[in-house]
Model the fold of this input.
Amino acid sequence: MWQKPKITGKSRRDFLLKSSLMLGGTLVLNPELAFSLANRKNWTVGEIIDTFVSQVPTAPFQQTVDTIKVGSRDTIVTGIVTTMFTTMEIIHKAIELKANLIIPHEPTFFSGQDETDYLQDDPVFRAKYDLMEKNGITLWRNHDHVHRLQDDGVRIGVVEDLGWSEYYTAGSPILNIPKTDLKGLINHIKTRLDVPAMRYVGDLNQTCSKVLLLPGAVGGRLQITRIMEHRPDVLVCGESNEWETPEYVRAANEIGMKLSMIEIGHSASEEGGSEFVKKWLNQHMPEIPVYHIPSGNSLKVF
Ligand SMILES: [Zn+2]
Done:
């Protein structure tokens, strides 16, 4: 799922340089521009992390999965790759792009806490870890923080990806989209998020307008609680244990309720969040080239 990177960091810098020349000789500087020019600097990993954390109202957190998994806070950052999952391909692309900071949303070493004590002699773990270490790459996970900005950055990014920004109310997982049927909604998501197929529960002809959007895997209890609160036509989520929400939605259909659910797949359902983080970095650290590279889904359909 490699896409040609958009070098927005550089183009913004060029824009700023051009703008400053145009404005040369006058004292009337756009405050944002003046700030950017005065603050052009070399960023360390630690400074980037601290700046992001400073924008999260409830941070710092006592416990968080957002730690440095490889490398060091003191690394001077030459470029950044944002993504959902740090695959070997993503690491190779980062090296190629001379980007020495990778910011994934999800775990790197196959568990929520990225526990590596039991993996030390495993060739799969070693390949990923050593490739990053040997190439001077630092990896910082940004999961808890991007979700807990004033408004969830992942949701904002996903809503943009889906083309639903005009139906979005900040802070709300409910979107009232133009009426369609479940089949039409699935096709819309397939096209917008580049997903070949999705699993669903319900009637493909059911009318859908009130969408409950819960990217990622928030858990069956929370998905069902939100369904009870909002009574949507359809839950659109990343994934769910098969024995939890899908069974609830099936039972709802069996008693005649109009309710369906669509599982996009975890990665595609939150990939918009990595675009959000890229834009955030462009805005706050315009000096640094930033690339969002979608990592795609490990699970294929056949
Ligand atoms: Zn997430």
In short: The first helix runs from residue 8 to 22. The chain has two domains: 8-149+269-292, 153-266. The two ends are 18 Å apart (CA to CA). The first strand starts at residue 68 and ends at 70.
